[in-house]
Design brief:
Elements lengths: L3 H21 L13 H30 L9 H36 L7 H23 L24 H29 L12 H33 L13 H34 L6 H15 L14 H13 L1 H17 L6 H23 L2 H7 L3 H31 L5 H27 L16 H31 L37 H4 L3 H7 L12 E6 L6 E7 L5 H17 L3 H20 L28 H30 L13 H26 L6 H23 L10 H33 L8 H24 L10
Antiparallel strand pairs: 1-2
Helix pairs in contact: 2-3, 2-4, 2-15, 3-4, 3-5, 3-6, 3-7, 4-5, 4-18, 5-6, 5-18, 5-20, 6-7, 6-8, 6-20, 7-8, 7-10, 7-13, 8-10, 11-13, 11-14, 13-14, 14-15, 18-19, 20-23, 20-24, 21-22, 21-24, 22-23, 23-24
Amino acid sequence: MNDPREAQCQDDADALHGQFDDVWGNPRGWRALTIVNHTTLGLRFMVTGLCFFVFGLLLAMLMRTQLALPGNAFMGPETFNQVFTMHGTVMMFLFAVPMMEGLAVYLIPKMLGARDLVFPRLSSLGYWCYLFGGLIICSSLLLGIAPNAGWFMYTPLSSAAHSPGVNADFWLLGITFVEISAVSAGVELVVSILRTRAEGMALNKMPIYAWYILTMAMMIVIGFPPLILGSILLELERAAGLPFFEVARGGDPLLWQHLFWLFGHPEVYIIFLPAAGIVSTLLPVFCGRPLVGYRAVVLGVISTGFISFGLWVHHMFTVGIPQLAQAFFSAASMLVAIPTAIQVFSWIATLWLGKPRYNVPMLWLIGFLIIFVCGGLTGVMLALVPFDWQVHDTQFVVAHFHYVLIGGMLFPLIAGLYYWLPHFSGRMASERLGKWGFWLVFIGFNMTFLIMHWTGLLGMPRRVYTYETGLGWDMPNLISSIGSFIMVIGIATLLLDLILHYRYGKPAGQNPWQADTLEWATSLPPNPYNFVSLPKITDRHPLWRDPNLRESIARGDHALTVIDHGRRETWGVDPLTGKVREIVHLPGNSWLPFIAACCIAVLCLSLLTKVYLLALVACFASVVVLLRWSWENGAHPKAAPDAKTQPHEPPLHSRTCDGPGLWGMGVTLLSNGALYLSLLFGWFYLWTVAPNWQVPDAPVFNHWLLLASALLLSVATPWHRRVLARLRLGDDRGLFNCEVGLAIIGLAQAALLLWALRSEALQPTVRAHDAVIFVMLAYSFGHALLAGILSALQALRVRIGYVSAEAPYEPLVVAQFWYYSLGVLWVSYFAIALFPPAFGGS
């Protein structure tokens, strides 16, 4: 007979879970579009990424069919160029990065003991932007007008003179749309990892996977803006005639390569690091011991991320750069092997000291180690300038980066998917099908790309749609094509296993792999809130230390179990120590992210079709929706229906001066600053390198207008800082007047900058010099206008009572934007007006 006390405890736990389901539950039907929960969004990212992967794989098969035989007429050159460009674009932009971000979005809160990511609506916006942007790009192939200049879109091939249709515009606008998603997820992950962990989880106690994702997210935040800027500049050149990359009017096509590879080489590690994080997470589980050298691996991960930003010219050794630069970037390209080797040796040591279990995920990890080490060795070969000259733009390079990207990303990803599959579905996959899939993919992959090294050494160039017989390339190409089809059969086997296991897989136990990390303390599949009570975690391996932790969490034995206020809550902690500082209340389901993404999609499509009036309307609608989104924050009743907390609990984050929004704004401005610094780099690069850089005899606009704009805000800044200092001390006197004054200043700044933009002497379509100045002024104009609007909204919120001494949070967030705008104004003034060589001075 059951113990009545146990039955009562179970009833209490069930009632508590029911209350949490009422607040956190996901709606069905059309309202499923409003879901902002990270579990659902992470799965959406991964399923969408998997669909794009299958699409990209089909494009690869079309190329291998074309290249299987010499003189093949299966595809013409134009079709091949479109398929080639779309294959690289889909795999790099629509599969690799979003898939890894989606897995991180799903796992990170669970691993860190949180209930959700810190900005759920931002995650939702990121997903819809990713989906819509990807569909726009892929639709171009179905319409026969896909991009055809290569997935790297080198100028001048992608410029209007050589690609006159809308093919390249699909790439430029669609990729910029998708990049919004990537940067959004990057900001979300950085702030969530730093500020919403379990109580007591100091940085040095985080799961190793979180370190990899933190580094990856920071690299996205800093590394993606150069490509976003490059895409904007190239689209402006194509649509409006601003000559950033046209030599005759003072531009330089190599500027595109610099901007692209400032993004492109870090992206290799953005893809690799989360995959390596999967390896570092799974190996200890299947070896039955902690990872060897945790601190050394963390240092290696951070070093890899840092060094990767100094390698972009590694891809440009043959474009004519100075020998000193070649030597520097060659050395840097080899230097990055050191922190990577630290991780490899840690994995080997863990295998050596443990007792490995060779389940399906472990097979993929061993395959990864073999293939990635081979890819790393060919990478060191390509870092040597003389060798790179010999094999540049040959099939050898294609083989190398497939070894690095497929071996370094796809193999660990499949290992991770098999490992976490019980988490997604509550069922186990088939060991037999999994092993068949592994061996088919492993054999097919090496047949395809190991042979391709040989083809490249024989001189076969990349990006060619056919070749003549008798050059020694016939048999290697045929073997590579056969191998690619074997690999695809393996992938199909894995997909079949994935589909079948949802219906026929054996039910999984609560911790089927005997894992150590906290995500296995949830139910399988997990509830939307992950944990009904939030435990204190002071160990890197919480489930090895306390195997009964899942049961105590489910009973509600830990913290933050009150839910009758209707808020979604998780802990806000100190970034270093993990000490609880506040309760972060999270927004619920909302239509606003979906509507905002739809407006941005209309903007993108109207720019593609050159219906600029509709584009203007869509841009205005996007801003209105995003501002409406920002209105439901802080002390707004929908954001915090009840501001009361329990006597022993800290305050809500919106009632403090250091909530996650400050960190979110800071990280966003870091990304914004990377974009601006890329623009500044373009200004100085063109002045230094462009062969026909044309400097006008007189200034092209009134510099005093820019100076007056900077001085106007500089004079107001001390007043602003004094008001905010009083607000931090609980005194909101003068806050309303200050926000009104800042709103007026922002609008006045915008008017001055608009006046400067309308200068008759400024001819952005005539000279690259003027075009860069035009973009810099437009950038500052947009920031000044937005800052003024944000301050006006803050003044209104002060008047209503949403911002006050009791809720001081929001003005401090907006203040960061003001200070950033001020810094940009002064830097622009010094770069444009006071940099003497720019105007022919000494």
